[in-house]
Amino acid sequence: MIKPVPEPGAGKPDSTEPSKLNPGSKELDSNGLATDKVDTKTLVSRFVEGNDQAFAELIARFRRRIYGIASRILGNHLDADEVVQETFVRIYKRRKELQKISYFSTFLTRVATNYSIDLLRKRKNSSSVGDDTTSLPGDIQLDLARKVETPGQVLDNKRTMDRIRGALEKLPPKQKATIVLHDVEGYTKEEIASIFDCPQATVRSNLHIARAKLRKILKSRL
Amino acid sequence: MTCRHTLSLLDDFLDGSLPDSDVIALNRHLDQCESCRQEIHQAKAVKENLEKLPAQEPGEEYFEEASRLILARTGHLNRIENARSFPAYDKSAAYQLSEAKTAFLRSAVSFIIALFVLSSAVYIDTQAPGQLTENQRPQSKLYVSVDLTELQNADNEIIVTVAEQNKIARGMLLMGPPGSLGRGPTLNQILQSLE
Ligand SMILES: [Zn+2]
């Protein structure tokens, strides 16, 4: 069911980090290697076998990536925190399934993204969204050419980012998640298709619609 | 190339996955069409800003705490830490030792209390042997003292028999605080009569 696709996040800065749960005492594996040098696939098979340290290391390795995706889809820390914790707890409960999957990070991203979308839908239902009257702050300055930033430009950029975030808020959850994964997090369409377990054509059309909507929202405020 | 066709290629163009031949055709259209040029400019700007969209940074402490909570929820943390500190049997040995210490402390305290009670009984007895003097008797008007042997009914018969007096004396010995009983002449007489 999960197609073998390359490990996502290749274009993004490495989000891996060594576990700091036990400073000073780096766990050594059977080959005498520190666990942060062990590849993800080996860690996953150890985790499935019941190695506790491997699970701790996997959390340390992927928590930032999960947090990044969740905080961009959901737009706040509390929800992102819930996604991070719930994702790893779910992974733990479903660890037997990990034997069958080719790419752990795709599986992980799928669990995190789906949970984020669920949470976003819940939030949208509970807060009376629908009134499009909530104004976006100021005029947008979509600057392409500027290389050096003056303090004024930094402020402009902050304003631009706030407007982008505001526009993202208006997208339906699935489209929002697609554009966040593709344009913000740097996942390929193939990877996103694998994450959502849908055809690539669906990803392409979702991305197309999401981008067009985003442009329209931002343009109308110019 | 129509505007509609141009815009349908926009996503691939943005993502750099458009074949060269299409890129040439697209650029040719853009040279002539201000509307599509604007649209592509806008789309590029949005995409580039999305790429720069900063993530929230909750800090390293947050991630450490989140990891701890996840491990606690999955029941791992305890097992990991137990394995690190010392083996289970050591822990139970330490537990047994603390149990023994508590038991010893309890019996020591009991022994000290028992010793105190005994010595106070001896002390009181040595301080006030025998009969209470007249001014040691309580002066309260509510106080009534009765000599059981002198209780008689209307026919001058003794109400409390000698056997019953013996029982009462024994009961008082059992119940009363040590050293404070058995000083009355009547009780002494009773005890003597028991022999
Ligand atoms: Zn055109």
Describe this structure in words.
The complex is a heterodimer of chains A (222) and B (195). Chain A is an all-alpha fold. Chain A has a single domain (35-218), classed as PhyR, sigma-like (SL) domain (Butyryl-CoA Dehydrogenase, subunit A, domain 3), CATH 1.20.140.160. Chain A is 59% helix and 0% strand. Chain A is built from eight helices and no strands. Chain A is globular and about 55 Å long. Mean pLDDT of chain A is 78; it is low at 1-6, 8-33 and 128-148. Chain B has 195 residues and is mainly alpha-helical. The longest helix of chain B is centred in the middle third of the chain and has 40 residues, at 88-127. Chain B has helices at 3-8, 10-15, 20-32, 34-52, 60-73, 76-84, 88-127, 162-175, 185-194. Among the domains of chain B are: 3-50, no CATH class; 149-194, no CATH class. Helices cover 67% and strands 0% of the residues of chain B. Chain B is rod-shaped and about 145 Å long. Chain B is built from nine helices and no strands. The mean pLDDT of chain B is 77. The relative contact order of chain B is 0.05. The A-B interface holds A 19-22, 25, 52-53, 55-56, 59-60, 63-64, 67-68, 71-72, 77, 80-81, 84-85, 88-89, 92, 142-144, 157, 160-161, 164-165, 179, 183-184, 186, 204, 207-208, 211, 214-215, 218-219 and B 10-11, 14, 39, 41-56, 58, 60, 62-64, 66-71, 73-74, 76, 79-80, 83-84. The structure holds zinc ion (ZN).
Topology, number of strands of chain A:
0
Helix content of chain A: 55-70%
**Beta-strand level of the residues of chain B, as a percent range?**
under 5%
N-to-C span of chain A = 44 Å
Unreliable stretches covering 5 or more consecutive residues of chain A? 1-6, 8-33, 128-148
**Which class best fits the helix and strand makeup of chain A?**
mainly alpha
CATH architecture of chain A: Up-down Bundle
Order of helices and strands of chain B: HHHHHHHHH
CATH superfamily grouping of chain A: PhyR, sigma-like (SL) domain
Greatest interface by residues involved: A-B, 45 and 38 residues
Number of domains of chain A: 1
Unreliable runs of chain B, pLDDT <50, ≥5 residues? none
Overall radius of gyration of chain A? 20 Å
Query: What is the string of SSEs of chain A from the N terminus onward?
Result: HHHHHHHH
Oligomer: heterodimer
Q: Averaged pLDDT of chain A, please?
A: 78
Strands of chain B, count: 0
